[in-house]
Structures are given as structure tokens and as C-alpha cells.
Design a protein that fits this description.
alpha+beta, four-stranded antiparallel sheet, 2 helices, 10 strands
């Protein structure tokens, strides 16, 4: 397989809107990973807004007012930490399977390449690896909940 074939395969994968493709022959193997298309992000955000707004409208005003100062305080404390963010939209899972242990907990040490969670998107379970080394300080997402592209998942103390 030459470079032109690889470039064509990459273009095909990005147009097919899949998150990962593996191509393997007896002499050659390639894995292409891509974030989901922006059109899918917009599609997924709107239904969530429509479902949340009517149910939460009466309660949202007092909660938002009390949450704003708390968010301002925690952001100044969290500035020394590095955030691991979601590379895609999907459902966040802390375990590889319901009967298995969690990948990481608060206080665990992580290194570059260590799997910290799984995000399920379109029936595919994508392992999310840490891009930094450090100690998990905070888990920002509940297990089995939907996440958006670039949503913070973990806070890591790199020191």
C-alpha cells in the first residue's frame, strides 16, 4: 500500500463518519482513528436540550444562581490541574464491563497511554487513554452518562 492509497483511505474514513477503522493484510496493518463528524455533535446536542429544558425549567434558575459562585471558586483551585477531555460524543463508562473493576479512581496514578475510561459511540466501545502522567484528583462525570465532544472527564495533578 503506497502513500496515495493511505490518503484515500483516510479521506474515506472521515467521510464515512466512523471513529475507528483497522485495515490489515499479511504484510501491512493500519489503524485510523477520527473524532465523530461535527454534524453528529449538533444532532446529538439538540435532542438533549429539548428533553432537559421542559423538565428542569422551574428548578434551573435557583440552581444556576447557587452554582455560579461555586464554579468560580473551584475553577481557581483547579487551575493547577490538567483536564482529560472526551474526544467524542457518546456514553461514558468507568468500567470495561459491568462485572469488572473501574479503570481509575480518585487518588490513582496514571501514566501516558493508561486507559482511564470507555466511551461508547454507535455501538463501538472506544478506550480513552491518558495523555498525561499524574494523579487522578477528580472524576467529573457519572458512570453510564452521556458526554459531549471536548467535555472534561477527569482532573489530573501532573506534579
Amino acid at each position: 500500500m503506497d502513500i496515495k492509497d493511505i490518503q484515500n483511505l483516510i479521506k474515506f474514513v472521515s467521510k464515512a463518519e466512523v471513529s475507528e477503522v483497522k485495515y490489515k493484510t499479511k504484510d501491512f496493518e493500519i489503524t485510523i482513528k477520527t473524532p465523530l463528524a461535527a454534524s453528529e455533535v449538533n444532532y446529538m446536542q439538540q435532542p438533549q436540550m429539548f428533553h432537559a429544558a421542559p423538565q428542569m425549567a422551574p428548578v434551573a434558575a435557583p440552581v444556576a444562581a447557587s452554582a455560579a459562585p461555586a464554579a468560580a471558586e473551584s475553577s481557581s483551585d483547579d487551575s493547577k490541574f490538567v483536564t482529560i477531555k472526551s474526544p467524542m460524543i457518546g456514553t461514558f463508562y468507568r468500567k470495561p464491563a459491568p462485572d469488572k473493576d473501574v479503570f481509575v479512581s480518585v487518588g490513582d496514578e496514571v501514566s501516558v497511554g493508561k486507559v482511564v475510561c470507555v466511551i461508547e459511540a454507535m455501538k463501538l466501545f472506544n478506550q480513552i487513554e491518558s495523555e498525561i502522567s499524574g494523579k487522578i484528583v477528580k472524576i467529573l462525570v457519572d458512570d453510564a452518562t452521556p458526554v459531549e465532544y471536548d467535555q472534561p472527564l477527569f482532573l489530573v495533578d501532573p506534579s
